[in-house]
Amino acid sequence: xxxxxxxxxxxxxxxxxxxxxxxxxDLDAFDANADDMLRRAGGKPIRVASKSVRCRALLERVLxxxxxxxxxxxxxxxxxxxxxxxxxxxxxxxPSADRAAFAELTSDPKLAxxxxxxxxxxxxxxxxxxxxxGGREVVRVCLELDTSLRLFGARVxxxxxxxxxxxxxxxxxxxxxxxxxxxxxxxGIMAYEGHVAGVGDSVPGRPxxxxxxxxxxxxxxxELAERRAAVVRAVRAVVxxxxxxxxxxxxxxxFTAAEECVTEIGAGSxxxxxxxxxxxxxxxxxxxxxxxxxxxRRPGVGVVTVLGGGYPASGVAGKDxxxxxxxxxxxxxxxxxGPGEVxxxxxxxxxxxxxxxxxxxxxxAKAGELCERFDALHLVRGDRVTDTVPTYRGEGHxxx
Length: 400
Known about the structure:
single chain, alpha/beta, eight-stranded parallel beta barrel, 12 helices, 19 strands
């Protein structure tokens, strides 16, 4: 029996009393992935990206491990909810225009002490001030650095279009703009190198592309390490008591941690290891989050139909954004239909061994987005479910 076949047998036994559709997290794999991230971080703390987890119970579980510290959130409303729930160090990783939430933040000392907001434009400071509604609390601010690699005189850009602040001078000017404005305090810098941390460098069947990605990432790491250090020096000249410099992601933990100026790593997808993280040479994780769909039809030889499954992930539309049939091994989509809103036909010889009601296990393309489809996660250890915990959706929250 292969390791994957053994996993399927365990998951089927663990959930035999449960009807699909359902989602699980394999705790042994989850914990092993967390330990591997800590090993790669080399002693620097890891701030957990909540968008990659979207389950309070699992956020609490990983933050209970020595070496994980703080949350990187994705909306201001989520940040306030987490702070009210007892998480006392929440960094909002994206700018917000949620005026009602800013009014709450600036009116509550507990929230203001727990939540740091992201800034890359003086207009965002004005929006916050206009939203205060009488709130006088000092707002903790993090400045975001654009990490994109610019080549050939900036005619070629590699990396996400995030912050407009690219040079040390630009980030230092933004720090001075915050320092001049009462009611704000710069506490950190964030620089997320998605083109390094979030792009696989070993694409199956594409050796030339894989080599090109590795070359790009090596160039990008070197350029960013030098520029990030210069940015930190420039900002510290304005804000000597800067408290943290956040960088990295699941695919670049060890590289970013090696930079002396970086004080903490941001990562989260590596806990679940969705399918987009299969093609990396920098680490080898274990799939921890899966979902199961039930067989509801047997249209013919070598074909079964499961209920639902059309859960594409965000990003540029393509096959790599689709979930993949994972267990039993050997199933594939019908190219004329793909994963469907209500039904998904699957082809392959393993279909002939599946009965109505049997579970087919899938892996989602991106980590936390799976939790937008399910109210609960069944936590599996060995061959039994040890607990069932709500996702954000199960707690009544769909923040984005």
